[in-house]
Amino acid sequence: EYEGDRNSEGQRHGFGKAVLPNGDTYEGQYDCGLRNGPGTYRFKNGALYIGNYLQNKKHGRGVFFYPDGSKYAGDWVQDQRQGYGEYLYANGDTYTGEWANNKRHGQGTYVYKDTASKYVGCWVNGIQDGPAELIHQNYRFKGRFLNGKPLGHGKFIFDIGCEQHGEYIQPVQEKEEEDEEEPPLPLEPIWKASEISKLTPWTPHVEE
C-alpha cells in the first residue's frame, strides 16, 4: 500500500507513506521510487529507524532503536554503522566513537555501567586493540591492548599518588598428555610489576 506523491512516470516521488508486504512501514521522502532523504521506518519486530536514506539504504545521520532496547545514534554508510556514533547497549553500557562496517573501529570510549569503568583508546573490528587507558574508580591502567586483553609494558596510576610500572605477559599453555576434545581456553595475561614510583617528577634534595 502507498499513499503519497508520484512523478509523471507513476514512481513514488516526494513525500509518501507505505506499508511493505512484510508488515514494515515507511513514512518519508522518495526519489524515483526509492527511499531517499529523511524518513521514518518502523519494523514489524519493533525496531525503528529515524534518519536519512540514499537509494533505499540508511545513509547519513540516523537513529536506530533496536527491539532489545539498545540504540545507535550516528553516521551510516550504505546500511552500515560507519563514521562517528554513540551506541547504548541493552545492559546499559555505552560506546561513543568511531565505527566501520557496523563494528567499533578507530578511537572510542566504552563505559561499563555496572562498574563505571571506562576504556578509552583504539578498537579494531569491534575488539579493544592498540594503545588505551582503562579507567577504574580509584586507579587507571595505561598501556596497549591486543585482541581485547592488555599485553606488554604499561603502568597502573593510583589516585593516592603513585604509579606501578610493569608488563602484562602472555603465559605459555602447558601441553597436555591426553588428546583434548576441546582446545583449552587461552590463559589470561599475567601482570608482572617492576617498580613503584611517585607521580611527581623526582627532584634531589640539596644536601646542607
From TrEMBL:
Keywords carried by this UniProt record: Cell projection, Cilium, Cytoplasm, Cytoskeleton, Flagellum, Meiosis, Repeat
Predominant location: cytoplasm
Question: Which Pfam families does the UniProt record give?
Answer: MORN
Stretches for region Disordered = 1-20, 171-190
Where's it found, cell-wise? Cytoplasm, Cytoskeleton, Flagellum axoneme
Q: Which Gene3D superfamilies match?
A: Histone H3 K4-specific methyltransferase SET7/9 N-terminal domain (2.20.110.10)
Where along the chain is composition biased (Basic and acidic residues)?
A: 1-12
An annotated GO cellular component of this protein is: motile cilium
Protein's name according to its UniProt entry:
Radial spoke head 1 homolog
Species name = Aegithalos caudatus (Long-tailed tit)
| Lineage, highest ranks first | Eukaryota, Metazoa, Chordata, Craniata, Vertebrata
